[in-house]
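## tool: complex_structure
## caller: assistant
## args:
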Amino acid sequence: METHQPPSDDIGWKEIINRLNAFAEDQIRLYNWFRGKYALPQGYTAEDFTQEAILEYLTKPSIYNPEKGEFLAFLKYYILRRLVYNLSTLSENKKSKDIFRLDSTDENGVSKYENYLPIELVTVEEEMNFEKITDLIIEQLNGETVLENIFEGLFINHLKRAEICKHYNITENDYDNGVRRLGTILKTAKLLVK
Amino acid sequence: MPAKSNNDLKTILNFLKEHSDAVSRNNQIATDYLKDQGKNPDAFANELLKKIKKTQLQINAKNNVTAFNKLSSLKELAVQKAKEIINSPGFSFLDFMKKENFSLQNRNLEGLNLEEIQDILENYLFLKMQNQNTSESDDI
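## result:
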């Protein structure tokens, strides 16, 4: 159910709005969670980003090239990511630092995702203990094969979604459900570490 | 920053991206997720849809005005050029037609007065410029 073209009717637009809004909501929630006490500057909400991203596209539709990927991905990773990045590097938010900005070298030029989510070094080094987090996740997997597979694929073998589905023979639906459940576990793990 | 920690961070960041993709995989999942977060996605989508339509209308209107202005200036240019041609020394309408390779069907050329010739020339030049303009835009 991927959307390769900009929508041509209300139903299509509503789907784009809802999906972009959910993506932004989750990103901001995770962003604030990872940055601890530092909230996104200026009280921006997911809805602000969603609206700004879509209206920016409308004023210059030619910036979207269908050959480079689906429309929603363009809104997510090209426009929305830049809007968030620009905001987080404003002078009043100097503490944030994009550690991947200089070394983000994606050969395909597609998803330089790391640019999108600036992480404060202090927060990460002092508050995040990767090994503890992964240990806690493993403890809570409770022998559920699908979750174990996804965890192994993402955290150990660094595979992509399609690769994980193929390698471990799980459906894309089960993958999505599994990732959402891992998210809940990860959030708990982070809180436990702290 | 040590390389290991950098990679760990990338792994976490990648997972966060996967998570956000998973909660926005389709319309139903996205809407349910937003409702779980205490949002009212339908109200927001309807509001934004109105703004999208308004913006599209504004952009279309702006484009129409630009196109209209372009045509108006072409028309002015055609009128001016027609005048120049008619007023050029030794102007002959028949020679001009031959040179430009265009014909007027069912018209008695002998009976045309200067005003009518000017009118025909203006229209001819205007159409010619418009065609040139269109093919130029097509090339871009």
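## assistant note: The interface with chain A takes residues 1, 5-6, 8-27, 29-31, 33-34, 37, 39, 41, 44-45, 48-49, 51-52, 55-56, 59 of chain B (CB under 8 Å). The CA atoms of residues 97 and 103 of chain B lie 7 Å apart. Handing back to user.
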